[in-house]
Fold these 3 entries.
Entry 1:
Amino acid sequence: MIILDGKTLAQEIKTEVKEQVATLTKKPGLTCILVEGNPASDTYVRNKQRACEECDIISKLIRLNNGVSQTELENVIDAENKDENVSAILLQLPLPDGLDEEKAIGKISPNKDADGLTNENMGKLFNKNSALAPCTPTGIIKLLDKYNVQIQGKLAVVVGRSKLVGQSIAHLLLQRNATVVMCHSKTENLQEITSKADILVVAIGKAKYITADFVKTGAVVIDVGMDRVDGKLCGDVDFESVKEKCSMITPVPGGVGPLTVACLMENTYKLAKEQQEL
């Protein structure tokens, strides 16, 4: 069994981004908008700020209280769209109840959309016409390539259908000629489906939900989950039971998480480069 080391690959990506940033006439600027209320989001944002320092990207954090209105949130996004020093905008998800994620994301200018989630950028992704894809799925593909995992012709099962991960990674795998099955909370006989997967991607937000019984012998398992059990970080996959059955697996932490942050830096650079060329 091989542990897929996302941390080392993430460092390689950030080193390359820093070199690319040095070729620009102006430093890129990334704005993270965080609506308070989710402790995990605080951790993510801190990691992104540290990565910006490593890559010589200007980092700006806007914290909004948990009672912020939809209009107030959208006004903040509008202001960042107009700021010429801001190359990329990231709205930290999930938002608290009462706020409309789709509407808020839709307010981000497509040419500043760091996670590629606006309708325009998702449309380009689905039509194979995008140089920029959501950060987590991009990182997953980079990791599979790093370890020479064959994607073409393989059965890939994706558990979780969010735009941020599930839908996007499904399309990226399809573009690499995998046969893709997408599962979700309403899927019947989930175990029967996942146990046939050559590549299993899990992003459901349920700690240690996927056990060895869900996994095919020799499968490649990508755990996107970030959960806490008894104060300890873990994924959606029960690592200890699954590692004995699969051929490759991502750990939590140290797997997909660092790659998400590194690919955010890469997307910020790409957006800044495109803006400066225009």
Entry 2:
Amino acid sequence: MSKPTITKKSSLGDVIKNYPETETVFKKYFGSGCFTCPGSKMEDIAFGAMMHNMDPETIVKELNDAVEKAKK
């Protein structure tokens, strides 16, 4: 099993920039505001999950699943 590409400490902005296929996951959990929020450049997924009262592990799993699916 390969190491996850995205972790709870990954920057929202970096993930959005480097993995555009994760857009639907971000919209599902955080809405579309992440794409224009200046804080997304500094905030990590764990912080975003806390702010939206979501489980970061669930979000990270779905983000990595989206990346893996896009590779196929």
Entry 3:
Amino acid sequence: MKDLERITFNPRIMGGRACIRGMRITVSLILNLVANGMSANEIQGDYPYLEEEDIRQALKYAAFLADESVHPLEPAPA
């Protein structure tokens, strides 16, 4: 994934889930914090080893996963 070098996957860390820079901080944790109203500054206050770019890339990764393509089904022949 281009421009997402901070998102890492390692089967020995958090069961291979998407993490930030090999740390035990998952992308899903960051997304939950943002979804519950925390700002980047507040997140960094609770997790001082995170950088603003870590949070930005977690959001970019989520956007990548959520990118939807609609493929309408053709009606079945009668």
